[in-house]
């Protein structure tokens, strides 16, 4: 904890570390919240127009969508329970899940007119992980900035990263919420699975942005909080998942997704689109 505090203060970052006392007031205690019919929890993130899911979309959440729609879903070759983050889902799958959930909850009265679920924009993801706002074209920060601060390697039991780092006990995905929340009350933004975002990548409608590291990631470049990669919108991979946001005040569910904003190629840590990014 002391190493994190020193690093965070040096970087001028918001404190993303958990409170040392379980009963201490949390920074997010006064934030607006929402819980939907699937048990997904959402919290307000300052500086955004949305409530962000506390954790990545779970196997149980996505299984409900598959049962209702008959959508094809190939499970990974490792064991998962309902509380693990869903993987092997494309950007297109994630978008359809959000539309299905919006329609389901609007019809049941769980959502107010104009409310809708969608994927976060890359800028909203920045705010959720604790990065200051920055122009997309500015690229990554000159000094490494990680979800925990500026030190390397990551602290023990902070997130689910690659086995070579030896910082957690999970060989693949971990149940969501296995690690402490950040200053906004959100879990797993740094690891577990890479998360699809709404944005196109480098102006290409066929490539979509992914943020965050995953259970396969071991390198400092992959674990940077400002790292973004692009990949084909129909690609499914066992380390790719997604997190939903709830937007309030859209004129209609169909209008809930803002115009797609290209993310400049300078933001990418990996830009080889000829093969899947793990």
Structure characterization notes:
The chain is of the alpha+beta class. The protein has one domain: paralog of FGE (formylglycine-generating enzyme) (Alpha-Beta Complex). The chain is 18% helix and 15% strand. The chain is built from five helices and nine strands; from the N terminus they run αβββααβαββαβββ. The chain has helices spanning 2-11, 59-69, 91-107, 122-129, 220-223, and strands at 33-35, 41-44, 50-53, 116-118, 194-201, 204-211, 228-232, 240-242, 245-247. A five-stranded antiparallel beta sheet has the order 1-2-3-9-4. It has a four-stranded mixed beta sheet with strand order 7-6-5-8. It is globular and about 50 Å long. Mean pLDDT is 82; it is low at 1-22 and 251-276.
Quick structural summary:
By secondary structure, this protein is α+β, with helices and mostly antiparallel strands. The chain is 18% helix and 15% strand.
Low-confidence stretches: 1-22, 251-276
Count of discrete alpha- or pi-helical segments spanning 4 or more residues: 5
What fraction of residues sit in β-strands?
A: 5-15%
Mean pLDDT: 82
**In this structure, how is the largest beta sheet organized?**
5 strands, antiparallel
Blueprint of the fold:
Blueprint: H1 2-11, E1 33-35, E2 41-44, E3 50-53, H2 59-69, H3 91-107, E4 116-118, H4 122-129, E5 194-201, E6 204-211, H5 220-223, E7 228-232, E8 240-242, E9 245-247
Parallel strand pairs: 5-8
Antiparallel strand pairs: 1-2, 2-3, 3-9, 4-9, 5-6, 6-7
Search tags:
278 residues, 4-stranded mixed beta sheet, 5-stranded antiparallel beta sheet, disordered C terminus, single chain
